[in-house]
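To the structural biology subgroup,

Please find below the input and predicted structure for COMM domain-containing protein 6, which we are adding to the shared reference set this quarter. The sequence is reproduced verbatim from the submission form. If anyone notices a discrepancy with their own records, reply to this email rather than editing the shared folder directly, so we keep one authoritative version.
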Amino acid sequence: AADKIRLIPQDFFAELCEQIIQHLNHKIPGINTAELCQRIQTSGVDINIGDLAKIANILSFLFSTAARNNLSTEELVTTLGSGISTLPKHAVQVIRHVWNEQGKAIAMSEDAGNMATVGQFVDMKWKLGVAMSSDTCRSLKYPYVTVTLTVADPSGQITDKSFEMTIPQFKNFFRQFKEMASVLETV
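Predicted structure (tokenized):
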């Protein structure tokens, strides 16, 4: 991971750290590594989204562990220095600065910690479609609903999950959402 961190320019590394701290503070639902990776690649750095996601997971673990253990900035930097693979100087400087400025604000309440282990719903999009024909059937005229859920997993990575439903399945899905809404109104 230290080798991949060396590739990331300091300003992008700082932005990644800031987003992770904001995610841990529940100010944003997650880190959009796909968008950040594309911007880093556009700047001429050869890094893939998988490596950037691993770095984000490592930094998220680092910051949340430091918060859980109430580490001061110096204790965190000393701990980083004693690691097996040493981080580049620019990365340690960024981590020091971000932790010094915002690290103490990470709220590790029990409820927030439990919620973070499941992930978080960010957005939902849907569209109605009709399958007209296929290789095996000339005339389908089969309506369906495609739903795309945007979720932030526990580490903060934002991903899209898509699925299709038949009209009866969608009606059941809709009915369940109406039930949830009516229960939430009583709270």
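Summary notes: Residues 25 and 107 are 6 Å apart (CA to CA). The longest helix spans residues 49-68.

Regards,
Lab coordination
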